[in-house]
Amino acid sequence: MDLKKRIMKIGMAMVLFLVLGLGVAGNYFYNVAINRSQGGPQLHGGGNSVAAASLLGTEEEQAKMDKLMKWTAQQHFEIVDIKSYDGLKLKARFLKNPNSNGKAVILAHGYKGSSEQMPGITKYYFDLGYDILKPDARGHGESEGNYIGYGWHDRKDIVKWVHFLIDKKKENAIFLHGFSMGAATVLMTSGEKLPGEVKGIIEDSGYTSVKAELSHQLKYLYHLPAFPIMDITSAITKIRAGYTFDEASALESVKKNKLPLFIIHGDKDELVPTEMAHEIYNAATSEKELWIVHGAGHTEAYTIAEEEYQKRLKAFLDRALRE
C-alpha cells in the first residue's frame, strides 16, 4: 500500500511538473512572439536571399535607394489617428496626392515593422495618382497595444481605417495592400463586411494562419513539434490577448472574400513557405491571380522584379477599377 501511494505521489508530481513546465514554456513563447517588445526573435528565413543581396549591393541600386529616400523625406505625411473597437489609439501616416480623384491605398507593414517602411511601393502608388494611408498596426510603431495581433484583431482596425478614408478623406476607390503580416492582415480583412468603396486586395508574402506560421518558426528555430507548445501558447494568448491561433486564419477569411485578389510570393521564401500562397489561391473563391516570383525570398518580389511588379500591379488595379 505504501508503495502504491509512493508511486501515485511520484506520478502526480511528474504530471504537475509537466503542466508547470508547459505553462512556463507557453508564457515564454508568448513573450517572444506575441508580447510587444522593442526587439524580436531572429526569424527563420528572415534574411535577404542571394539574389536580393547581390542586387542591393550594386552602385546603381544604391543610387536609386538614395533618390527614393530623398523623395520620401520631401513628402508631407499627415499623422492621423482612430480609436480601435477595443479603445486603442491607432496612428497612421497619410499622404495626399493632388491627382488622386478619390483613389487611395492602405499599405499594411509586416511583423515588428512600422508605417515608416515600404518607401518603394509608396512612391509607386503616388506616381499612379493614389492617396496613401500607412497605419502602424496595433502593438507597433506609434500605435497603442501591448500585443501583436498577427492580423486577426488588426483586420477590424483596417475596416475602421477604410471608413476613416471614406468619411474623413472622401475616398471612393480603396485598395488594401499588405506585406508579410500585413498581407495576412488584408487577407483576414477580406472576409469582413467591407463597403463598396473597397475595390481589391493585394497580398505579398502572406501566411495561411497564425498557427501554421508560428508552428513553422517553432520547428526551425527550436526544433520542436507544434503540439503541445502551440496549443498551450494559443490558450495563453486567448487569456492575455483575446484570440487563439486557430481562429486567426487568413485561409478561412479569404473563402468569404468577394473582391479581386492578387497573390504575390517569392519561390525562395523560407520565412513564409511558398506553398502557403498556393493554399490561399486554392481557397479563394473570388476573381484571383497568383504570381510566384522566381528568385525572390520573403517580401523581395518588388526588389527582384520591380518593373514586372509595377506592370502586373497596375494591370490589376486598372482592371479592378473597371469592374
Write the layout of secondary structure elements.
Layout: H1 2-33, H2 50-56, H3 59-74, E1 78-83, E2 89-95, E3 103-108, H4 119-127, E4 131-135, H5 154-169, E5 173-179, H6 181-190, E6 198-204, H7 210-222, H8 229-241, H9 250-254, E7 261-266, H10 275-283, E8 288-293, H11 301-304, H12 306-322
Parallel strand pairs: 3-4, 3-5, 5-6, 6-7, 7-8
Antiparallel strand pairs: 1-2, 2-4
Helix pairs in contact: 1-8, 5-6
Describe, in plain words, how this protein is organized in 3D.
The chain is of the alpha/beta class and 323 residues long. It has a single domain, classed as Rossmann fold (3-Layer(aba) Sandwich), CATH 3.40.50.1820. The chain has 12 helices and 8 strands. It has helices spanning 2-33, 50-56, 59-74, 119-127, 154-169, 181-190, 210-222, 229-241, 250-254, 275-283, 301-304, 306-322; strands spanning 78-83, 89-95, 103-108, 131-135, 173-179, 198-204, 261-266, 288-293. It has an 8-stranded mixed beta sheet with strand order 1-2-4-3-5-6-7-8, sandwiched between helices. Helix 4 (119-127) links the parallel strand 3 and strand 4. Helix 1 crosses helix 8. The longest helix has 32 residues, at 2-33. It is globular, with a radius of gyration of 21 Å. The mean pLDDT is 91.
